[in-house]
Amino acid sequence: MSELVTGEAVALELRPARLPSRALAVLLDLAVAVAVYVAVTVALMASTSSLDVAAQTALSIATFVLVLVGGPIAVETLSHGRSLGKMACGLRVVRDDGGPIRFRHSLVRGLIGVIEILMTLGVVACVASLVSARGRRLGDVFAGTLVVRERVPFSSTGFMPPPPPWLAGRFSGLDLSAVPDDLWLAVRQYLARMGQLDPRVGWAMAERLAADVAARTGAPVPREVPPPAYLAAVLQERQAREARRAFGGAPAPAAQPPASVAQPPAPVAPPSTALPPAAPPGGRPEVPRDVPSEGRSGTGFVPPA
Q: What are the angstrom distances between the C-alpha of 187 and each of 204, 239, 302?
């Protein structure tokens, strides 16, 4: 898989086409182009037999250029990178950023293809495709294009097995900042393809990956935890941290003091021992001037007895 980044900063995983499929597509395109060129040439010879040799030569050159050079360019431009041979092989020509090609891309590919495919019988194109990491020929390099596979066989390797429930939150205190992205990618690929590997080979890979992760986190792998379960739990912890960092997490609860530390009891107000004032000889208690009565604020005025 090849990762391409679009103009909107979206990473695309595309599978570049290799030499065998590209060679088959080119042979099919050449067979169709040669058949059309022979048919057009026979028709022109029958219709221009009365012309002189110079005119017939000029028509032959124009037919060669239009059919064998202009034809593939027009087909790729109109079909957005899918010629007849590429349609049959499930290929497509795209830009370096994954977008559809335009006329200028097809023109550059077609003109350079005359040199590296037609004049050299494809030798230069084969060598360039073998040397390139993405299987690109010189026309693709100068045009800024890439031939990718459209029909990719379906596989169920995208399922990521969850860690065992008893490992939930077990590795929440690990320092995962020193683990590189390449190692995380290797862990993801192993977990996604774990079911397709030989048991002994898969176990050896899990032990090696777990040892690499543990060496960068500074904490050894627990003996009671199998390496595949350890990798799944650590990867889930990393994903949870990234989700909290990206979307924001719930506010942390206030720290509670440990139970072993005794808290001093809150001061309790002593009960009031004040006795109500004694009633005067007249039988009616005296109402103080500054104490409110019946919930009303005190005004300092006392009605006469």
A: 13, 13, 89
Q: Which helix (H) or strand (E) holds 91?
A: strand 91-95
Of 16-25, 121-130, 150-159, 184-193, the poorest mean pLDDT is in 150-159
What is d(CA 186, CA 200) in angstroms, rounded to the nearest whole number? 18
Sign of CA dihedral 129, 133, 138, 144: positive
Q: Determine the Cα–Cα distance for residues 162 and 237; give it in Å rounded to an integer.
A: 11
Greatest Cα pair distance in the chain: 155
How many angstroms separate the CA atoms of 267 and 203, rounded? 63
Among 232, 238, 240, CA closest to 161: 232
CA distance 234 to 169: 9
Cβ(87)–Cβ(13) below 8 Å? no
Q: pLDDT tens digits for 226-270?
A: 888 888 888 888 888 877 776 665 444 433 444 433 344 444 444
Percent of the chain with pLDDT over 70: 72
Rounded Cα–Cα distance for residues 219 and 299 (Å): 75
- As given in the structure block, the two tokens for residue 191 are 């977990």
Closest CA to 146 of 115, 85, 105: 105
pLDDT digits (tens, 9 = 90+) for 257-304: 444 333 444 444 444 444 444 444 454 544 444 444 444 445 554 555
Q: For residue 293, count other CB atoms closer than 10 A to its CB.
A: 10
β-strand pairing of 91-95 with 145-149? antiparallel
pLDDT digits 0-9 by tens, 115-147? 999 888 889 999 999 998 888 999 999 999 989
CB atoms within 10 A of CB 44: 16
